[in-house]
Amino acid sequence: MCGRYASFRDAQDIADDLAVADIADDARLLPPSWNVAPTDPVRIVVERPQRIDGRNTGEITRSLRLARWGLVPSWAKDPGIGARMINARSETLLDKSAFAKPLGVRRCLLPADGYYEWRKLTLPDGAPARAGSTSKVPKQPYWIHPAEGGVAALAGLYEFWRDRSKADDDPDRWLVSATVITTAASKDLERIHDRMPVILPADAWDAWLDPAVGAEEAMSIVGGPQVGMATRPVGDAVGSVQNNRPSLIEPDPDPRDPDVVAVGGP
């Protein structure tokens, strides 16, 4: 799964990298984060018609907008369900009602600089195993990022949820939320975790964002080539959402992983 990532580059740099024509004010002002966590505000890249006189009737424009991480289906009774929908498994996108419709009409990219994953290690010799508990199993956090540099464009879905307790003229009556699509880990990355986010190469961005592309074609994009990633063991500080600083992605000087995973670069 993808439960933490980092997005610290400037909004204009993201716009330049992903050919974004319009940046929403709240997306421009979102501060950099080295520890993005579920339910945090995140930037998403979408293609939607421009609004004219309150209607989506204008030219389709690629824009950078703000969403909450954790998809809230339009039919949900309350937005709390979003905390359980930060990821969408690619294998069940067409089967789950929360994801099937947005797969066809509301796809997005979540620009990131990389993401974090934790590798479960074996218990030290002589350590007692506790039945039904993984609290004592040591883990090594890893910073996973594009091997060739540049932005990591995470394939995602987004949705609109209407808060019917708010008035029609309340600007907060609509919640925009998003989820990251995940897939089975590659042969190299599966040594760290069995799942990974779908990170699309630049030549797949246009088709993924194109609202004219249907769900079946979108599924073929999800199953296509992905960006090559590099890994780096990092310190335990990333495990707390209270920590948010550039040093989170610096190499762990003394990793507890006896078989440090190095994929695609240093």
From TrEMBL:
What are the boundaries of the region Disordered? 232-266
* InterPro entries recorded: SRAP, SRAP-like
Q: One Pfam family for this entry, by name?
A: SRAP
Report which superkingdom the organism of origin falls in. Bacteria
Q: What class of enzyme is it?
A: hydrolase
UniProt entry keywords in alphabetical sequence: Covalent protein-DNA linkage, DNA damage, DNA-binding, Hydrolase, Lyase, Protease
> What's the Enzyme Commission number for this chain?
3.4.-.-
Q: Which PANTHER family does the protein's record reference?
A: ABASIC SITE PROCESSING PROTEIN HMCES (PTHR13604:SF0), DC12-RELATED (PTHR13604)
Q: What is this protein called?
A: Abasic site processing protein
Which organism is this entry from?
Answer: Isoptericola luteus
